[in-house]
Amino acid sequence: MSMKKGQSKLHIMGDSCRKKVMLIHGVGFYWETCFERIVNDLKDKFCLLIPELEGHCHEPEEYMVSVHASANNIIHSLLQSHFREIDAVYGISLGASIALEIALQNKLSISNLILDSGQYESMGEMTEQFSTVMTGEFKKLINGEHLISPVKENMGYLSNNDVEVLQPLIFPDITQEALYKAFLAAYSYDIRERSERLGMRVGIMLGGNEIYAKSSIPLVERICLNTPEINEFPNKGHAEVLSREPQLISQLISRYLIGL
User: Fold this and answer.
1) Angle between helices 94-105 and 67-80 (to 10 degrees)
2) DSSP letter string over 40-93?
3) Which pLDDT score is estimated for 260?
4) How does 124-156 read in b/e, with b if 16+ C-beta sit within 10 Å?
5) For 201-248, what is each residue's pLDDT tens digit?
6) Which of 25, 159, 164, 177 could lock 29 by a disulfide, CB 3.0 to 4.6 Å apart?
7) What SS3 state is found at 17?
């Protein structure tokens, strides 16, 4: 389906009269496979809203420009579909940065924000270099090859399980350009100078083995009016819960929505 410029393809599942849950995928991930278990767990209880990030589809018409632009596109699509109040937003990795940006723009009413392993500080002059490296590494993962050791260690795959964790989440036909533009957006995003504050309930998720995600926690804490809840899963790497135990994310979302 062709999209108008400034819109994000939005997949809607479940009764729109029920509480709304938005799920935002990460760099290189494919919404339909990476969220399959969560969709099956939640679609009969909630209305699910899943935006498809630019370039993460067959025959993409456009690629990511920035986290800010993608957030704007998603907000526009939601408002066009008459969704102004979202009960919970869950974002993983780049999706967490986009979820955070959507919340900071305050154009929607969001009750609960769940940020899974996001990065909220620019890589600065290393942005393009890291984007190039990670594009190549993700292409290797698609072919069943392991990440280089520094990347693997930073992402927390201490038992050399990076391929088995990430390969099922990645869109196998994603192009080199789509990956590069998405990593460029992720590594350029920075909230250190932002003056906006988050008034909703905020939860931070991460694997206990991750390095960078853990160092990002203070950046989020600084902009929250209330202390965020930290949900750390021991002995897990980046996106390992989503890949191997997605029911834990379904349970967390459900817990937030019933007010526990």
Assistant:
1) 60
2) HHHTTTSEEEEEEPTT-SSS-S-----HHHHHHHHHHHHHHTT--EESEEEEET
3) 59
4) eeebeebbebbbebbbebbeeeebeeebbebbb
5) 999 999 999 998 999 999 999 999 999 999 999 999 999 999 999 999
6) 25
7) coil
